[in-house]
Design brief:
By secondary structure, this protein is an alpha/beta fold. The protein has 21 helices and 24 strands.
């Protein structure tokens, strides 16, 4: 309720007049936005508008309305938080076996968590299930350069050097293959490209002993965890954001997927499950797609094709350099680009150059400083919204019901409906309420808003079944798990998940001898959000960077002392938290702090060639006293 009643909430639309914010009525605000957007379209073409939805809108129903608006307006440049969060894992799994998996924690016999800290940065279901798993005596291993809250509960902690995930997975697979712990029956029938993979990975150069200088993980510990994973049936893997944000994150994710497959853990009780999505009515594209390609489609064609949207991180270049064509206007809904996108100083310059910027949010976010118009959205308490729950391994549609009338603002869905009507697009947005829109979305299932309510807000659209691939194969070109990806091959990518230089040692860079990992969440916050709530701010009142005692001593930094963290891109000042819970060669900065923004230190250089994701978690840095 602190969020609902927060004095930081936007109470009315705000229009910038003569450099000052003025509260206006919705009619004036929407009329102003419609005229500005139409002017951009007339002068520069519809593609000159970019739209970005962030984590604040969720990953569910609201984005359908936003994408529909983009389609009717005519811009190909709808984009979302999938450009920087989670989608790398989705792509890696879809490349490998055509669908996304989630671990069946309740029934597993061994749990491997890779690059995640679910006891801090996840919905409460996963931590609850892990706690129950531990009570059953099930062993758990964690891969993370930091000894996190989750690591403290794990039986094995593999403190990996940031960015060397590919090598560590290959070391584990080497043990599984050399010690004959793989599922021969499944692999022979269902895996494409296994023979050359086997011949390569079983070579001595991929042994844990050869990998130890690269990964920083003790070879015997790697062998122990690999054996436990290979011998235990069933076993499961939970993958976190720590895998996403590296130059070759998708390859590491593919290799983990291959490890799940060759050990026979796909879609079995206690393994890694496929939970299909329901067949909702697609409302996103009532009109043919624009002929102009979306931003990022030339450099990252696989991402744009699979997501059917633009790459959001290509927007600053289109604004500042007008490449491949100029972006002149932008709408940001529930996002915070100046804090969450890499190279924040460049993002700020881009927003300042826009001819029109509109922000939709519940509170005044940092992006609002550069806006011409701000529209207040209501909270999740104040809107109806259906939800799909495949990320919880549940084939259920649930209804999040409005519990109070909006105190301020409008439901996000209705903001887009009203904006569309102000622009003359009313025939494509006929709904008067969120409930009416839900009726339309669920109509192909024979379901409605009222029917969902009558069923207690829960609808099971499919019963749980296992080994679904036995009826029709996997959703890949070969119908099998693809070690050698035919999808990637046809688009001009290397089909193999093993890079030629995967074992290449980075060495030490004299000017930047440490590795910086960023982007983790703090328990009271979600990205930038909620730092304005006093009770939460008390739990984590100021930004800190983590540094090992030996490293702090080497650079003359004391606990609690303000120091400077520097990368080739930028520098920030914040206090040091000296702790043994981090590797000596690694420095860590959480995300979301305006006053010590970790993304002042990151850049858009060297993104993953498949996902387009930036490297946020294995950057070069140094620490220096002020």
């Amino acid at each position: 309720m602190d969020f609902f009643y927060s004095p930081k909430r936007l109470t009315s639309p705000l229009l910038k007049k003569d450099g000052k914010w003025v509260g206006v009525e919705w009619e004036e605000a929407l009329d102003f936005a419609a005229k500005k957007l139409q002017n951009l379209k007339d002068r520069y073409g519809a593609q000159s508008l970019a739209i970005y939805h962030g984590e604040g809108t969720g990953h569910q129903e609201i984005k359908f309305f936003i994408k529909r608006f983009a389609n009717v307006f005519g811009t190909p440049n709808f984009s979302g938080v999938g450009s920087i969060c989670n989608e790398a894992r989705t792509l890696g799994e879809k490349i490998t076996y055509g669908a996304v998996t989630r671990p069946d924690i309740s029934n597993t016999g061994f749990m491997l968590i890779w690059g995640g800290n679910p006891f801090v940065s996840h919905e409460p279901v996963l931590p609850r299930d892990i706690a129950r798993l531990k009570k059953r005596g099930v062993l758990m291993a964690l891969v993370d350069p930091r000894k996190t809250e989750t690591a403290a509960k794990a039986d094995f902690h593999l403190a990996l050097k940031p960015g060397r995930d590919e090598v560590l997975v290959l070391n584990m697979i080497h043990v599984i293959l050399r010690e004959d712990l793989w599922d021969k029956g499944f692999t022979e029938q269902w895996v494409h490209g296994f023979t050359p993979f086997f011949e390569t990975v079983t070579q001595d150069r991929f042994s844990p002993e050869k990998g130890e200088p690269v990964t920083g993980v003790d070879a015997e510990l790697v062998r122990t965890v690999a054996r436990l994973y290979g011998k235990t049936k069933p076993a499961s893997v939970a993958m976190g954001n720590g895998l996403d944000h590296h130059t070759y994150g998708v390859n590491a994710i593919r290799l983990l997927g291959i490890m799940k497959a060759i050990t026979g853990n796909l879609d079995i009780p206690g393994g890694d499950l496929f939970t299909p999505r329901p067949k909702l009515k697609d409302i996103t594209s009532p009109l043919p797609p624009p002929s102009v390609p979306p931003l990022g489609s030339k450099e990252f064609p696989f991402f744009c094709k699979m997501r059917k949207e633009a790459r959001a991180l290509s927007i600053p270049e289109a604004i500042l350099d007008e490449h491949p064509y100029p972006i002149k206007g932008m709408i940001i809904a529930g996002g915070n680009t100046t804090v969450e996108w890499p190279d924040s100083s460049r993002v700020r310059k881009a927003l300042q150059k826009l001819e029109f910027l509109m922000v939709i949010d519940v509170v005044r976010s940092p992006d609002c400083e550069y806006a011409d118009l701000i529209l207040p959205a209501s909270t999740f308490f104040e809107r109806d919204e259906h939800r799909v729950n495949v990320y919880l391994n549940l084939a259920h549609i649930t209804l999040r019901r409005q519990v109070v009338k909006p105190l301020y603002g409008l439901p996000d869905q209705m903001i887009w409906v009203k904006l569309a009507k102000a622009m003359g697009f009313g025939e494509y947005f006929p709904w008067q309420t969120c409930g009416e829109a839900i009726d339309y979305l669920l109509s192909d299932l024979g379901l409605s808003y009222e029917k969902l309510i009558s069923q207690g807000g829960i609808y099971e659209y499919e019963k749980r079944s296992y080994k679904k691939y036995e009826n029709g194969g996997f959703d890949t070109p070969t119908g099998k798990v693809e070690i050698l990806s035919e999808r990637l091959r046809t688009m001009g990518y290397d089909p193999s998940p093993i890079r030629e230089k995967v074992l290449h040692s980075w060495g030490e860079v004299e000017a930047f001898p440490l590795i910086l990992t960023t982007g983790s969440n703090l328990l009271p916050y979600l990205h930038w959000q909620y730092r304005y709530i006093p009770r939460l701010r008390k739990l984590a009142p100021e930004p800190l960077f983590e540094i090992h005692p030996r490293t702090a001593l080497r650079w003359g930094v004391e606990d609690g002392e303000t120091a400077e963290v520097v990368t080739p891109t930028g520098k920030i000042q914040l206090k040091a938290h000296v702790t043994e819970k981090i590797r000596p060669d690694t420095v860590h900065i959480p995300q979301g702090w305006e006053e010590a923004n970790a993304n002042e230190l990151s850049s858009g250089e060297s993104p993953d060639p498949i996902s387009g994701f930036p490297n946020l978690k294995s950057l070069r840095c140094r620490v220096q006293r002020i």
